[in-house]
Design a protein that fits this description.
alpha+beta, Arc Repressor Mutant, subunit A, Pdz3 Domain, 4-stranded antiparallel beta sheet, 15 helices, globular
Amino acid sequence: MESLSNSLKKKATEQHYRAEVMIAGEQLRLRLHDGKLIKDRRYHLRTYPNCFVAKELTDWLIDHKEAPDRETGIRLMQKLMDHYIIHHVCDEHSDYKDAKLLYRFRKDDGTFPLTKDVKVFMRGQSLYEKLVSVEESILKVREENSVKYQRTFLGCEMIDWLVQEGEAENRKEAVELGRALLEHGIIQHVSNRHHFFDSDVLYQFWINFRRRRRLTELLNENSSRALSESPDSPFCLRKLNPDPGNTSFLSVQTNKEIKIVSAVRRSSITSLTGNSNPYFSPAPTLVFPPVAECNPKSVLKRPVTNEELLSPGAPYIKKTLTIVGDAVGWGFVVRGGRPCHIQAVDPGGPAAAAGMKLLYRFRKDDGTFPLTKDVKVFMRGQSLYEKLVSVEESILKVREENSVKYQRTFLGCEMIDWLVQEGEAENRKEAVELGRALLEHGIIQHVSNRHHFFDSDVLYQFWINFRRRRRLTELLNENSSRALSESPDSPFCLRKLNPDPGNTSFLSVQTNKEIKIVSAVRRSSITSLTGNSNPYFSPAPTLVFPPVAECNPKSVLKRPVTNEELLSPGAPYIKKTLTIVGDAVGWGFVVRGGRPCHIQAVDPGGPAAAAGMKVCQFVFSVNGMYVLHLDYQTISSLIMTGPRTLVMEVMEAIE
């Protein structure tokens, strides 16, 4: 088996460090966009888009403890300039000056060189994100020679996965891809002895793409210090060796056993420690110490039960906190269960700014709302509904009776069979009693509201669509009998609705096109954005739905556009960076197409529109990940599994 030569190790180390600089620079760029340091600026009657002032950035680095002094800040930014991450807006200065000069990230103006090495890095990042996002991933913690390694896989496993997922046409091409990733320092043999082969040799991802980098790591290029692992789970504490210079926040008192903790916030950037751990060390052997378990000690002085929290006169008060995540999440850690509590709060994070403190308990939004029999029936109905709509062959279907189509319908006997089969009821008699309780509580109904629930072929429907977004104004119209307009449950879907002058749904196509009114589902499972006033239950219980329209098949693009056309020099497109903070129901836009994807629709009242998103823009990157080569389903998944604060780069045609 081929061993690694010293020259190959040296090359991998150099590429490894280059990748470190790229990721650290990209994380900094996203944070600066989020902090509004990057913006359009005017100088000598000319506007320079998406730039920052060097002197202001140096101040920011010191304020955010990314640099201890101005000299270090200058050295850090010079590193980024040397690696073509940033440049002077007019390219008049080859070095970084701590002055009132304008600089810009090359990713913000499209001048970042997409070399072969960069493309391999982006391919490796795409594969890593795809692997860690699946439930049964081939990446696991494995042990070899009494040493535990993170993010490991067998060479043959990776080959099988690449071919199976269509990332490579055959095993030979998959091996070539694996060898390229190893030569670029993205993966490595766990003891750094062998090249990549289609065998049961153990490899690992050398790069943890989800770790947050400290900029000071860039100055320690020749450090051989082992990389401290940090978990990818969004709420985890880990034991770390105490370090006086570490700026991680405390979750327990200093006299406790575990002193320094690191919290993973909402984004994919995980480590908040201040350790200087570069991506690549010149000695390429990267050995991880055994993984420390999550902090087993609770900050609670004693256990607290739900009953104690909710009992009348209990010494607890309820507070509502609104926390807007920043570029790295929210900054708190949750532990325990039934009830959960706040284990740690980053004093410099959004949660602390919103007033979060240790020992707060998480409760449902209604907090002390009593769990009466009626509420328990409602929760049972919601559970059954979600279970039914999540299976492929569901008994819930669109059916017609007396020339009227009804949504979410089922036959009484079908429901009885399903309840018994799924173990929701022990026998048919118990299933009938459950069905009658659901009907009496307004969760299901006979389609024409004439009959109670029976074990027969009578047609019923779920009266409540638990996935529909409610307008708060609906609560004021308690006696409305207006029919409920259906909206899709898919997280990124357009639907044809009957035009209604009073409807507040947004337009995705011109008014003279066939489809005029559309509804977009944003991040949450709440779907309808229409302004209809539709309460849970109307006193006139007959609920008639129009026939379901198909998803809008027409693209808003006037003609197809290729990636080559977008990226060609002199193309009539400009790149814009949008920072979109999702609200309670998501971001408010629809992605369609593929390679490249485009914005099909934008909710004029949503966060995306407020950030400047427009129809027909092309999606260039999502949270720092290049996505021109991806389809809209993959991009949608990246968005929905990412942080609430979404940073997107889009290409817009110059008018």
